[in-house]
Specification:
Elements (H helix, E strand, L loop, with lengths): L2 E5 L4 H12 L3 E5 L9 H10 L6 E4 L17 H16 L1 H5 L5 E5 L23 H22 L6 E6 L3 E2 L10 H12 L1 E2 H13 L6 E5 L2 E2 L9 H16 L2
Helix pairs in contact: 1-7, 2-3, 3-5, 3-8, 5-8
The structure holds NADP nicotinamide-adenine-dinucleotide phosphate.
NADP nicotinamide-adenine-dinucleotide phosphate binds next to helix 1.
Length: about 250
């Protein structure tokens, strides 16, 4: 029986995956905002102390988005806090528990190999100037590519495989986080063009049954994304990794 920890496992894609894996007999620990507020470094760190000491699969699927710039009590822009800081911290802090498993895997649901518009705003990571939902989401997508590259480079001896996975457009209910009129537009588009959460979870469950063997893999659904793309630049990954160690270490 595998132990699978899923952040964002209470709803949407993560919720559907949690249901599917439980039915298949896995032990699933699903984390939602009532279990820990992953926009908080302090709560994310505390959560890692409550999780099992052997973890086969860590799925990073928690996300929160807002049209307004929201700053956490710890001084971070919310999107950056949940999609970058918490994912960095969870992967690093849960590494010992993952290393105890036979074939450990981190599955990071993100916008890998996605829209070229996304970029890291190195001089203003918290987007104090010119925040927009799009900029914050795209910066998060690019940062997650670098998180995967950074993890693989920082732990070359590790048995943990890291998979960056873009589910593409899924009718997950994520649009409920948005305000009108974005909420109505995204909701209607997702219902028309999005994949169902069940179908998305079925693809993920098949991936977990036959995971890639490379230390780092990037996928857009089933299609591999070449790691030679600029999104995975090793010096940018090292730069971000160093920055995140400093930011999370100070808390
Ligand atoms: N849906 C898509 O089309 C799509 C496309 C590309 C990438 N993705 C990525 O895939 C992942 C899952 O997306 P989704 O559409 O399934 O999202 P979703 O339906 O909005 O679900 C978000 C999940 O994150 C949790 N969450 C939100 N804020 C949290 C917080 N502060 N602390 C802890 N947990 C929190 C929610 O828990 P509660 O319910 O307890 O608040 C929920 O389980 C996200 O990272 C997203 O960026 C999605």
């Amino acid at each position: 029986m595998r132990t699978v920890v899923i952040t964002g496992g209470t709803r949407g894609i993560g919720g559907a995956l949690a249901d599917r894996l439980r039915q298949a007999g896995d032990r699933v620990v699903a984390i939602g905002s009532a279990d820990a507020d992953l926009t908080s470094i302090r709560q994310t760190a505390a959560l890692t102390n409550r999780l099992p000491d052997k973890i086969d699969v860590l799925v990073l699927a928690a996300g929160r988005f807002d049209k307004r710039r929201i700053v956490t009590d710890e001084g971070f822009e919310q999107t950056f806090a949940i999609s970058v800081l918490s994912r960095y911290l969870l992967a690093e802090r849960l590494r010992p528990a993952l290393e105890r498993a036979e074939a450990p895997l981190i599955l990071n649901l993100c916008g890998t190999g996605g829209i070229r518009a996304g970029r890291i705003n190195w001089n203003d990571l918290q987007l104090a100037d010119g925040y927009s939902l799009f900029r914050a989401t795209m910066q998060g997508a690019r940062a997650n590519d670098l998180l995967g590259a950074g993890f693989a480079a920082a732990h070359p001896e590790s048995r943990i495989r890291y998979v960056l996975y873009n589910p593409l457009f899924v009718d997950s209910g994520m649009h409920r986080q948005f305000r009108q009129p974005t909420r109505a537009i995204v909701g209607a588009s997702a219902a028309l063009f999005g994949q169902s959460t069940d179908a998305s979870a079925a693809l993920l469950s098949a991936l977990l049954a036959q995971p890639p063997s490379a230390p780092l893999t990037a996928l857009r659904r089933r299609a591999p994304v070449p790691l030679t793309r600029p999104e995975f630049d090793s010096s940018a990954a090292a730069r971000l990794y160093t920055l995140l160690a400093e930011l999370t270490g100070a808390h």
